[in-house]
Amino acid sequence: MSIVDRLVHKTKEKIDSSTDTLKNILKPVLDETEEVSWPPRDPEALILMEKEIEKREQEGKLDEGFLSEVNAQLRQSKLDGDKPGLEAMLQKVLQIYASKVLRKRSYANKGGGIIIEERFLESIIEAPEEDWNRLLMGGLNIGKGEVSPEEFYSVIKKRIERVLIRTEGGSYQQRILTEYLKGIQSRTEEVVEAFQGSKQ
Question: Which domain covers residue 52, as residue numbers?
Answer without folding.
Answer: 3-102
